[in-house]
Write a structure and sequence with these properties.
Elements lengths: L5 H8 L6 H9 L1 E6 L4 E3 L7 E7 L2 E7 L2 E8 L4 E2 L2 H6 L6 E4 L3 E7 H9 L3 H26 L2 H11 L1 H6 L2 H8 L3 H11 L1
Antiparallel strand pairs: 1-8, 2-7, 3-6, 3-8, 4-5, 4-7
């Protein structure tokens, strides 16, 4: 499918400028796809061979610990969702990707995307900036768990990611914050 989306290009170029030809070649190997709520895009133990640019909707990343789902990441519009470590290293994924809402995504398949990216120098700059930003986001998330109490983590979400509170069910948000739903309810009541 030929993706000719100016918004998609704008998001890509927020990482690094892409000449017209490079953008067209990249867009030409992306596939628009409708994903249904609860559809699993990646299973734990499976090698990640696709990534998803979210046009609309929400995808969550979670792992199973002692049979209990632990949410580790939420992806919304304009995010790229994948297990990039598995994608790059051809290693089994340590988590699942599942649609939390009916979603529209642009899907990049590794065997189609990598040759395009390897043959155009502008993608080296793009990839560097993209993964640099991903690293900082992961570090920020890790630091909220190391340095903040559950109440402070909730306050951080309230101030910096209010869309989480509007779109993520309480049990999933509690799991993401590393607390029980009951504790989250007490914190919300105390703060409001």
């Amino acid at each position: 499918m030929n993706i000719n989306d100016t918004h998609f290009r704008k998001v890509l170029e927020s990482f690094s400028p892409l000449p017209d030809e490079e953008f067209r070649r990249f867009a030409d190997v992306m596939h628009q796809r409708q994903v249904h709520k609860k559809e699993v895009l990646l299973k734990e133990g499976q090698v990640c061979r696709e990534f998803y640019f979210i046009v609309s909707g929400c995808i969550r990343g979670y792992s199973l610990e002692n049979g209990k789902e632990v949410n580790v990441r939420f992806y919304f519009e304009d995010d790229f969702a994948a297990n990039f470590e598995s994608f790059r290293n051809e290693e089994p994924s340590k988590f699942y990707l599942e649609a939390m809402e009916d979603s529209t995504v642009y899907c990049g398949i590794k065997t189609e995307v990598i040759p395009v990216m390897q043959n155009h120098i502008s993608f080296y700059s793009f990839a560097f900036r993209f993964f640099q930003i991903q690293y900082f986001r992961e570090a920020e998330h890790a630091n909220t768990f190391k340095l903040m109490s559950p109440e402070e983590r909730y306050q951080f979400i309230l101030e910096h990611k209010p869309h989480y509170l509007q779109r993520i069910p309480l049990n999933a948000l509690a799991s993401y914050l590393g607390i029980s739903r009951e504790t989250l309810s007490r914190i919300r009541k105390k703060i409001s």
